[in-house]
Each structure stands twice: as structure tokens, then as C-alpha cells.
Amino acid sequence: RPGVAFENVVFGYEPGRTILQGLSFAVPAGAHVAIVGPSGAGKSTIARLLFRFYDPRSGRVTIDGQDIAQVTQASLRAAIGIVPQDSVLFNDTIGYNIGYGRAEATPEAIEAAARGAAIWPFIERLPAGLDTEVGERGLKLSGGEKQRVAIARTLVKDPPILLLDEATSALDSRTEQDILATLHRVSRDRTTISIAHRLSTIAGADEILVMDQGRLAERGSHPALLRAG
Ligand code: ADP
Ligand code: ADP
Are the CB atoms for 130 and 123 separated by under 8 Å? Predict the structure, then answer.
């Protein structure tokens, strides 16, 4: 399991405006670090740098100690599984959505991923299992059900690193608790970075980094930050 680190990362989208002001943090192998902060703090920018949509102006981002600038796009994508806020599903079966385009997606792997994402409770209510049609734009599934399919779609790759990018932000609070419990479970054996604007949507992080205006404003364990309000 690889660790992830940002080392003195300075980054801006435009000349003359710096967004990340020498950001450093480490996610030890297998640990779960959450990044929270208000809108505009720079959270998504961290995700974009991790996928190398952009490169830092200075400093570096490493996986397993290796500068990701030295890593191929293909291995970067294989290493990091993302669960985004709004997952677009294909108008096809649940199984197809989980396995789409992935060499790893054998029927056994799809079933294991579906189990990992706890899809079974909801497909019991549907006429069939993984053969069930998702329907036009996934509309036959609830938001939570769609998010479970998205989690399974990520799990089928068995990525050593998990990036949860506002993964429950679009859900109502009860559904959110269900999905958080699942994410907590599946993140246990992976290096995990979760990004959220609310502290309450972080499940089981070992450390919380509070970002503000491109800097780390605070860091600590979850209960300590909750006490601080
Ligand atoms: P967060 O995810 O915490 O809401 P972002 O990382 O999206 O914050 O944005 C951090 C800052 O970078 C904001 O001031 C935002 O306006 C700016 N920003 C984000 N994307 C771009 C872009 N493509 N071009 C220029 N500025 C951007
Ligand atoms: P793949 O099988 O190609 O890895 P993924 O669903 O993991 O498919 O996503 C492919 C790539 O698309 C990711 O590696 C990432 O670069 C990008 N991507 C997908 N969703 C997002 C998102 N919400 N934010 C940032 N990047 C994303």
C-alpha cells in the first residue's frame, strides 16, 4: 500500500495568483486523511494535482515516495480510485455500470465489488440482481443506490488509493450515514484521502486537515476538532 504526500506544493491556475501556498501533508500508507474547508479553500485543486491535471509550480506530489511527474498517466489512474459527488451512470445494467471498460471486471470481481459497496440490500427490492437495468440517466435508482454503484465501480479496480471527493455531499442526511458507513468499511484497507466541506461527512479519518485559502489552518483528530467546533 502506497502513501501519498504533498511536499511544499505551490500552485496557481493563473500567473500572479497563488492558490496553494506551499502545502505539505502526508497520508501514511493505509491511513485515512480528510481535507475539509470552506468553498474556495483549494480542496478540489489538491485532487486535480493528484491526478496530474496540473503540475505544481514548485514542490512535489509523491506516491510511495515517487514524484508523480515520473509516473505514467495509466499507472496513476490504476493507483487511484475516485468516488465523486455526482456519478453519471450508463443507461444499462448495474453490472455493466460496475464493470464498464475495466479489464479487472470479471463477473467474480463485479460481484465482489457489489458486495463491498453493499449493493445487495437494495437489489433485493428490485426485480433482478446485477442484471437490473439502471434506466435512463440512472433515474430508477435513488441517489444512495446510484452512489453504491459508483463505489462498486471504483472498487472493482481494487485501487490501493481511494479519493473520496464530496462523495456523500449530494445525499440526504440519512442516506449519507448509510453511505458513510460503507465508505468507512471499504477505506479501511486502503490509503484514503477524503475531501468534504463539512466535518460531519468524514467517516473514520485518522487525521483531519482544515484548509483555508490554500493553507492548512488546523489539523487534528476528529473528536478534537469537533470539540473546537
Ligand atoms: P474548493 O474545492 O475548496 O472549493 P478549489 O480548489 O476548487 O476550492 O478552488 C480554490 C481556488 O482556486 C478558488 O479561489 C477558485 O476560484 C480557484 N480556481 C479553481 N479552479 C480554477 C480554474 N480552473 N481557474 C482559475 N481559478 C480556479
Ligand atoms: P478509470 O477506469 O479510467 O480509472 P475512473 O472512473 O477511475 O476510470 O476515472 C477516470 C479518471 O477520470 C480518473 O483517473 C480521474 O483522472 C478522472 N476523474 C473522474 N471523475 C473525477 C472527478 N470527479 N474529479 C476529478 N477527476 C475525475
Answer: yes
Mean pLDDT across 86-110: 88
Ligand 1 centroid from CA 116, angstroms: 33
Contact 6, 209 (CB under 8 A): no
CA 83 to ligand 2 centroid distance, Å: 8
115 contacts 186 by C-beta, under 8 angstroms: no
- What pTM value is reported for the model? 0.87
Q: 113 C-alpha vs ligand 1 centroid, how far in Å?
A: 33
Predicted confidence (pLDDT) per residue in 150-183, tens digit: 999 999 999 999 999 999 998 999 999 999 999 9
ipTM of this predicted structure = 0.72
Instruction: Answer whether 46 contacts ligand 1 (Cβ < 6 A).
Output: no
Q: How far is CA 48 from CA 19, 100, 163, 182, 204, in A?
A: 13, 23, 11, 25, 24
